[in-house]
TrEMBL record:
Transmembrane segments: none
Key words, A-Z: Hydrolase, Iron, Metal-binding
Protein name: Metallophosphoesterase
Record keyword Iron present: yes
Calcineurin-like phosphoesterase domain location: 3-220
Family, as annotated: Belongs to the cyclic nucleotide phosphodiesterase class-III family.
Coiled-coil portions: none
Amino acid sequence: MHIRFGVVSDPHIAIPSTVWDHPSRFHLGEVSIPALEQVLQHFAQLELDFLLLPGDLTQHGEPENHAWLAERLSQLPFPAYVVPGNHDVPHLLADGRSIGLADFPHYYRAFGYEDEQALDYSRVLLPGVRLIGLNSNDFDAQGHLVGGLQPEQLTWLEQELVAAGEDLVLLMVHHNVVEHLRGQSLHSWGQRYMLRNASQLRRLLQTYGVQLVFTGHLHMQHIAQRNRVYDITTGSLVSFPHPYRVIDIQSKPSDPEAGIQVNIESYRVTSLPDWPHLQEFSREWMGQRSQPLMVKFLTSSPFHLPLEQAEALAPQLRYFWAELAAGDPELHFPQFPQPAGRFLQRFSRSFRCPPDNCAQLHLQPRRKLSRV
């Protein structure tokens, strides 16, 4: 087996007439289409087998943006597969501005959703390779969107995994399955990026030997691992550092016990015709808008700093989120109050394994894990 595929997450497509301008927005919606076009041009040179897009396909679920993306994907020389993100279906029902959850499969029938009545799918992509796409958008009694899987989804997933005979099963879901930030489950702002029932999903994946999960939502380059499950989250194409990935997977049929080798390469959109210094501009854009996020970060667990102190310290963290978003950060806070400074420093690359941007993973043969 030898496959190569691309990953583009959170492109937040916005045709010019729909670009949402807000003074505190992190997204550069203006670059969504030219950035995607540049990435697709690169992919066209690589002879990819397929493309994965793990959600937040559109700016705010606008019908015209979904229609634009579906049409563009239909022109690719390789198949593409998608799942919905929180921005794609911000409300359970269509509200005139955005589509409803049940509408999503209609737009993406050619990209995984052959059954327009189902929000999850399971497809054999190539001999020995299966992709399972899950919808992780759930709505509570008040109509608020939360990240989670319904019990019937987990039941369906287990049935699919029991029946799957492929050597490699890939899972794609928008919300994170493994923590990507230290103490993420302790922060209200960190929790919103994870599945509420991530532990249940991980147990299923471990039981049936699914080791590669592709997620988005967090707008950060990071690879997290827990109990043989790798959660590969890819940063947003419309925020610093405008990354995307190419995944190369190989196994030797003559030696199945050798396992599966995974090579991950990351790239960035560094400039565009109207944005010659995109990286510098985008990093500064993020830094200028980081103060409220950093204040909330410092006043939450495990810091619990008083608001006044958090507001005074937050400027020192102006580029903290940009460094995390870029992946493989090198962070030093010698002047920061301790032990907070030591905690922040542990977000550095030296404490991470594997690396976030370019990594080599070794997967165990699935048939052994399926007997756990």
